Every structure is written in C-alpha cells, then in structure tokens.
C-alpha cells in the first residue's frame, strides 16, 4: 500500500512538471511572438509637431503655427546610388530655374555618380587609403575638395537640378525624413504624388508664424533641429534627433511647455502608412507683454529715432532701448531698435540682456542709499555745490554751480559734487583741496553691494538664457570711486536699469524680472529705512516736476532720474575706442503714488563730442513723453 501511494505521488509530480513546462513554453512562445511582431512592425513619426502658442497678457497671439504641405524622401532599405539618382531625376523637373546650389553639393553629386575614388585623388593619397593610413571618409573628403576646386561649370542646368535634389535626399542624419519640396501649390503637389515615386510621400510640417512680423522676434527665439552641441541633453530627455526644438530665448527657455508630440505611423507591407497615434499640440504660454503697448512703443521709437538721426552731430547714434514694467517685475513692453544706413530698422531687443552701458547720474538714488547706509548724510543738511580736486587728479564738478543743496535737491538738480563729498566720507576722509587719499576694494564694495541690491551689476533672473551681469571696473583708485558714485565707471544692462526702477518703485523690494505671466519672487531687499526711501522718492519726484527730468512723464505725475555719460566710441569698427561720445539714460515710475508702470531707457552715443557745448537731442524725453501720454491719457 505504501509503495502504491509513493508511485501515485511520483506520477502526480511528473504530470505537474510536464504541465509547468508546457505553461512556460506557451508563455515564452507568446512573448516571442510579441517580440517578433514588434520587430516585424516598422514605425515612423511625423516630421514635426505643433508647438504651443505664445500669447500676450490679453490673449493676443504673438507666435502661432502654420501648417504646410511638403514632399519628403524616406531612405529606402539599402538604397542604391543609381536608384536614388533615378528618383532625383524624376523629382528634378519640378524644380524651378532660380534654385541655389553650392560647389560642395555639386562635388557630392559628381563623386557619388562616378563612384570612383581613384579617379579623384592623387596616387599617393590612394596608396595611403589602401594601406589604411587614411580611412575612406578622409579619402572621400580629399576627393570632394579636389572636385570642388577644379569644377568648371561642366554640368547642364538639368543635371544641376538632379544634383540639387540628390543632395536634399542625402541631407542631415541618415534616418531623417528628407524634405525635398515645400510651399508647393496644390496642382504640383498632387502631380508629384500621382507619380508614385519609390520613397517619396507627402506630409505636413508645422512652422512658426509671427502675426506681428519681426516685432519682439529677437527674444521670442528660434526653432530648429537639435544641434550636435545639445544632442546628448535632448536624447536623454527622450527626444529624437529629427525633432524640432527651441534653440534660443523664449522658445528655448520654455521648451518643456511648448513642445508638442509627433504623430506615429505604422508602415504597411504595401508601402502605405497607418496612423496609430495622433500628434499632440504643445501647451500655450502667456506673457506679461501687452502688445497694445508694444506696438505703440515701436511706433514712437521709429518716429523719434528717425528724426534724431537727421539732426546735427548724431553721426555715431543709431539705437535706443526702452523697457516698460511693473514694480513687481513684470515686463509689459521691451524694445531695442537700430536704424540702418538705408533708414530701415532692425529689432535688437535681445541686446537688452547682453549689452552693457555706462549710464551716468541715474545711479544717484542708489549712491544716496550708500551714503545713508554709511551714515555720511545728515538728511536735510545743505552744502554749497562746488568742485573737488584730489592730488594728481583733474578737478571734478557738477555740470554747473547749483547753489545750496541737500540730499533731496541733490537728486533734483543732479549734483556731482554732493556725491563726490559723500564718496570721500565713505572712504573715511573729510574733503580738503588737493588732498591725498587712498581707496580700498572694500570702499568699492560698499557701493557695489548696495547697487546690486537695487539690481545694478546683478543678474535680474529674467526668464531668458545668456543674461550678462554687466561690466565692473577692476582698478581701485579714489577718483574712480568718485566716478562710480555718479555712474561713470561700471556698466549695466538695460534690463538692470528696469530692475533698478522697479526696486525704487516698490520701496526697496527687488523682484525678479519675467516675461512669462506668473507671480514673481522677491530676490533682494535694499538696506534702507522707510524715511530715507521717502526722501529718495521726493528727490526723484522733483526731478520730473522741476529738475533735469521735467517733461518726461505725463502731467509730471511720477518720479525718475536722468543720466548722461561720457564714453569712448569705436567709429571705425576696428576695435580701437578713440572718439568721445555722450550717452543718455532715464529710469522712472508713474504715477508717483502707487506706481503702475516703471521705465528704463538708454540711447548710446547720442552725440560725438567733436565740439564742446553741442546740443544733445533729448530723444529720451521725446519718447517718454509720448509713451506716458499713451499710457495715462486713456
């Protein structure tokens, strides 16, 4: 009985093992079938995906997509050169006679058509190739160069067309879809499709469309194929090499939001495609930009830049930058505009984050803050405006004798002398004529640290790549500290000037600048008492009501500071800065109580300083007057 039970258990065990192996076999077979199916199925993706739109704060579309028909070539399996030349010949008849072709493209065509390496390289180079001293690609490049250098226009127009199409069929990465034709009329498009040429199909691509033309285009950014420099970064994020991506500025900054998803297609056995996954449009982004203000600013700037360029002694002037923001860092309008020799205009708005300028007296509100912080100002105490003479240095004065001034009227009248006396006290001295004094890097830091709290000489954290910090002088000397205190030493970017204006308008809170519509963050705070900030505001208000900035702001209901700087200009574009020129700047906010808008404007090289006492065109005042009239007359 025991033996029978043991045998039953053994039989059951054997049956269990057989069944288990069978189940495993079936599962494995199913798995392999799935894997085999995946290998058998070939998929491809659409050329591009519709990106998200870029809109202004009111929902006006600044960047959109436009859908275009294209004729593409998909590389055949193991393509034969002769077959590709046949395809190129069939397609070439649709190419118009005004096409462009390079010698490099001609060389590629001739070499591939002949397919004879030995014919186009020297005997010595051919021996190097045969002896593996140089590889095939190196030998081919030598051959292509020889063909290019010796080409003598021997190809007919028809053959040049074939050469052009052939090069388009072999452009970029091997597995990329090659765009042969785009912007075709319907008749030509369907003619090509009706020919049923192997490897040729029709598709749609999405390109960026700009309803406002070139306005803001320099900071909106470009879209294009992934370059070699950023290849690994994009591949690690799941991109394909054929994807179109944001390459610069806002398109690059917000790539993760704007990017869309390509449609997916299955290649059928008869050569047709079946869509298995729809394309998906990217997400839209909304900017703080108000295109109503932007368009008006463009109109105002074009008018006054053109009129200014026609006035006396403006031979070096050709551009102005203007920014409009809010105290909490939102950019409502921004524009850099250059007039060309033919009186056309170029958008150079991208320079607002990369180009630096010496801005003059606009920094004096920050300089007063340094003096308050170092306890060298007695608020309300008056001194008689005069000049300063340090040992071995030339005399330094205000632009004219301004009489008795205090911390408020010094801003109103833009006294240099007031800042010089304060700077000398910051260094630890009381001024005496022709005195010897020393400055330290720590003295410079006292100014620069406060300036940075305002945003001068510090990145604004604007949502654009490649922002610069400005230019800091590297020589430590007492007369240069005096220059720094009146804005005649370090250089700042236009966006930093707006950040400075914002910080003044928000009572010392510095917010990051942003083009994207969102809540900004406080990134710094100025060390100043409420009372002293009120005195600065009062001084800046007097600037636009009775001082150097009178007439800049609508109804004089605002605050601001003008600045004039003397710089060297490279008139010959030879890298040698030898001619003195004057630049002018202005920062401000309005209304004076509860500011709604902030402003920054700079016009470099507004005069050449060839003659003394020349008239400087007040273009900044003209632009600000018209701009604020538009903003506040509504």
- The CATH topology name of the largest domain reads Beta-lactamase
The total of beta strands comes to 22
CATH superfamily of the largest domain: DD-peptidase/beta-lactamase superfamily
For the biggest sheet, the summary is:
6 strands, antiparallel
Q: Helix tally?
A: 21
Major beta sheet, strand line-up = 13-12-11-22-21-20
Helix content: 25-40%
Secondary-structure arrangement, i.e. CATH architecture of the largest domain:
3-Layer(aba) Sandwich
Radius of gyration: 35 Å
Through-space gap between termini: 109 Å
Shape: elongated
How many domains? The number is: 3
Q: Helix- and strand-based class? A: alpha+beta
* CATH level 1 name of the largest domain: Alpha Beta
Instruction: List low-pLDDT spans.
Output: 32-39
Average pLDDT works out at 90
Comma- or semicolon-separated keywords:
19% strand; 634 residues; six-stranded antiparallel beta sheet; Penicillin-binding protein 2a (Domain 2); alpha+beta; 3 domains; single chain; elongated; Beta-lactamase
Describe the structure.
By secondary structure, the chain is α+β, with helices and mostly antiparallel strands. It has 3 domains: 41-70 and 205-287, Penicillin-binding protein 2a (Domain 2) (Alpha-Beta Complex), CATH 3.90.1310; 76-173; 291-632, DD-peptidase/beta-lactamase superfamily (Beta-lactamase, 3-Layer(aba) Sandwich). Helix content is 38%, strand content 19%. It contains 21 helices and 22 strands. It has a 6-stranded antiparallel beta sheet with strand order 13-12-11-22-21-20. Strands 2, 3, 4, 5 and 10 form a 5-stranded mixed beta sheet that branches. The chain has a 3-stranded antiparallel beta sheet with strand order 1-8-9. β15 and β16 (396-397) form a beta hairpin. α3 crosses α7 (157-169) and α14 crosses α17. The longest helix has 39 residues, at 2-40.
